[in-house]
Write a structure and sequence with these properties.
Blueprint: E1 18-19, H1 30-38, E2 44-45, H2 46-49, H3 61-74, E3 79-82, H4 87-94, E4 100-105, E5 118-122, E6 127-130, E7 133-138, H5 153-160, E8 168-173, H6 182-194, E9 198-203, H7 213-222, E10 228-229, H8 236-239, E11 245-247, H9 257-263, E12 267-271, E13 287-291, E14 294-299, E15 302-303, E16 308-310, H10 313-325, H11 327-343, H12 347-370
Parallel strand pairs: 1-2, 3-4, 4-5, 5-7, 8-9, 8-11, 9-10, 11-12, 12-16
Antiparallel strand pairs: 6-7, 13-14, 14-15
Helix pairs in contact: 3-4, 6-10
Length: 381
């Protein structure tokens, strides 16, 4: 088995995109492959390179791992980034396929195998220890609908007429599985009981007849079924225009709908423990702007947190009440969120952040291999 090459800083071109074709779950997107080839770029499927590719799920998995490793070493891949713990990725890590090997995860913080150099997880901050492992944090971009595809005012007005004229609309978008959390539903029920004019829109592709019976039963037991709507649609650009306050479920999710909502200038409330931020990792200029039970986090005068967040379910209920009764505060919060989406977590900003992060990891790996750079005697101490 060929050893991994030494890490260099010299870039090379001409490599072909390679698809794993994890047929146990789904084959690679044919439309995406077509677009790649339309650009004049060749595409290689690892599954097409194995001898027993026509045996369905009974192909030799070990041989596929070998073929994938051979392709990567032939292509002289310097940096391996894996985002799952499938057997192919575990094999690539443990056999040192590339000089620099990174595990990138959104939720699985405990996966461990020989050969992982560094770990990246989606989050705020820069670096910290999670589940016993050092992680670098990267904030992924929020992809929002282009202006040309957003809902037109007429459609928004027609949709708004579907609900009581004087109602204050709470809601969430495309997060139906997370709504079954009992602590979250209890908080929503308390908010609805404290504010008789409020209703809740559980936007998702499932209509009321297709909702999980367990979720419906919980809503019925809480006595809020008459004010809990299931529109049967997860059209984020449209529903973001009529939801007055987004009540983010307590469970974490990688859903893009909250970002779409923030991009429309809406106010969002989330449960986020204050110790999510390690104070030792924050720059000296990072400060909090407090109001009641929620806060914004600022760095160099710029907001780095685009929503109101609280530490407990009790504070969540109190903060919701404050936001429901204070239109000016909702507008201010919405403008902060919109600015952050457009300026801080835009695809351009994320690309620059990712480039800087990879540069830091490459530099760190090179120093581990070669030792620290020699001290220039001409430089002042």
């Amino acid at each position: 088995m060929a050893p991994a090459r030494q890490l260099t800083t010299q870039g090379e071109g001409g490599r072909s995109p390679t698809g794993l074709e994890y047929i146990e779950k789904s084959i690679s997107d044919r439309e995406c492959i077509r677009k790649i080839r339309d650009l004049g770029i060749s595409y290689v499927s690892i599954h097409d390179l194995i001898d027993d590719r026509d045996t369905g799920l009974y192909y030799n998995h070990f041989n596929k791992c070998l073929k994938l490793r051979e392709k990567m070493t032939d292509d002289e891949i310097d940096i391996l980034i894996s985002s799952s713990c499938r057997e192919q990725n575990t094999f690539l890590f443990s056999t040192r396929t590339s000089p620099l090997q990174i595990y990138w995860t959104g939720t699985d913080l405990v996966y461990d195998v020989a050969g992982i150099d560094y770990r990246i997880t989606n989050g705020l901050g820069t670096r910290g220890t999670l589940s016993g492992h050092e992680h670098y944090f990267f904030r992924p971009p929020i992809m929002v609908t282009p202006d040309s595809a957003k809902a037109d005012p007429k459609s928004v007005a027609e949709l708004r007429q579907s609900y009581p004229e004087d109602a204050f609309i709470l809601g969430s978008i495309d997060q139906l599985p997370e709504l079954a959390d009992e602590d979250y539903l209890l908080a929503v029920a308390e908010i609805l009981n404290d504010h008789p004019q409020a209703v809740y829109l559980a936007c998702g592709s499932e209509g009321s007849d297709d909702i999980d019976p367990d979720l419906k039963q919980k809503i019925d037991v809480l006595g809020i079924q008459d004010r809990f709507y299931f529109p049967g649609s997860s059209n984020a650009p449209l529903y973001a225009r009529i939801i007055d306050l987004y009540l983010h479920p307590f469970s974490s999710t990688t859903n893009t709908a909250p970002g779409e909502y923030l991009a429309q200038g809406g106010a969002l409330l989330a449960l986020q423990p204050f110790d999510f931020y390690d104070q030792d990792q924050l720059p000296p200029s990072a400060t909090r702007w407090e109001w009641g039970a929620a806060s914004f986090l600022y760095h160099d005068g710029r907001p780095t947190l685009s929503f109101a967040h609280v530490a407990t379910a009790e504070e969540y209920v109190l903060a919701a009440g404050r936001l429901i009764s204070d239109a000016e505060l909702r507008a201010k919060l919405g403008s902060v969120g919109q600015w952050v989406v457009e300026q801080i977590v835009s695809p351009k900003a994320a690309a620059e952040s990712f480039s800087a992060l990879m540069g830091e990891l490459i530099k760190r790996k090179l120093q581990e291999i070669t030792g620290p750079a020699p001290i220039d005697p001409t430089e002042e101490a």
